[in-house]
Amino acid sequence: MPNLRLAVFASGGGTNMQALLDAIDDDLLPATVVGCVSDRSTAGALDRARAHDIPTAVHSPSDYDTPAAFGEALCRVLDDWTTSFIALAGYLKKIPAPVLHAYPNRITNIHPSLLPAFGGPGMYGTRVHRAVLDAGVHWTGVTVHLVNDAYDDGPIVAQQPVPVLPTDTVDALQQRVLAVEHRLYPAVLRQFARGQIQVQDRTVTVTNDSLSHPEPPPHAQSHN
């Protein structure tokens, strides 16, 4: 089975990156995290990477004159790491065109709702869960999708619903959604590693009948 050479992009604490690392350690994901990219030097994801001796790079769009220059700088880093696949894990910046062109259908993102609901610019983290509660919907969930040139707009690869409970607070809902994110993302990336996912325009086909969701190892629960 091919081993994904995975670059993880993260702007925050990096719990989804930790879930990927845990899945790799538990032989649930045939991948190697070759580097962590962030737009924030204070991102907790960078600390998690360094704790695993994973190379890190900090590049912000504001450091460059144009999006193209930003993208070219990212591509140089990714080339240095011989990256084969990119996983966005709480990354808040738009992926520039040079990176999209270099990794067609090889960039995924995980979003804490059932897209296209509660997605788009500015919809991330607790903002999503607050919007879900304010809307009074009975179901939310998690979406893994391919990345294109618009926020939360790429072809959907997998989704898993999460019920919204009458007693839910933003924090309670976020924690339950995160637990699903931490199971779903490694499972989807495993399917990419196995060559089970085919993409034609906006249609994603998975060659097996259903997505396998491995139970998280006990230590994964502590990363929520």
Give the arrangement of secondary structure elements.
Blueprint: E1 4-9, H1 15-25, E2 31-38, H2 44-51, E3 56-58, H3 67-80, E4 85-88, H4 97-102, E5 107-111, H5 126-135, E6 139-146, E7 156-163, H6 170-193, E8 197-200, E9 203-206
Parallel strand pairs: 1-2, 1-4, 2-3, 4-5
Antiparallel strand pairs: 5-6, 6-7, 8-9
Give the CA-based shape: globular
Q: What is the number of beta strands?
A: 9
- The number of distinct helices, counting runs of at least 4 residues, comes to 6
Structural class from helices and strands?
alpha/beta
Query: Average pLDDT value?
Result: 92
Describe the structure.
The strands form two sheets. The protein has a seven-stranded mixed β-sheet, sandwiched between helices. A two-stranded antiparallel sheet has the order 8-9. The chain is built from six helices and nine strands, in the order E-H-E-H-E-H-E-H-E-H-E-E-H-E-E. The longest helix is centred in the C-terminal third of the chain and has 24 residues, at 170-193. The chain is globular, with a radius of gyration of 17 Å. Residues 212-224 have low confidence and may be disordered. The relative contact order is 0.16. The protein is α/β, with parallel strands linked by helices and 224 residues long. It has helices spanning 15-25, 44-51, 67-80, 97-102, 126-135, 170-193; strands at 4-9, 31-38, 56-58, 85-88, 107-111, 139-146, 156-163, 197-200, 203-206. Helix content is 33%, strand content 22%. The chain has a single domain (4-223), classed as Rossmann fold (3-Layer(aba) Sandwich). Helix 5 packs across helix 6.
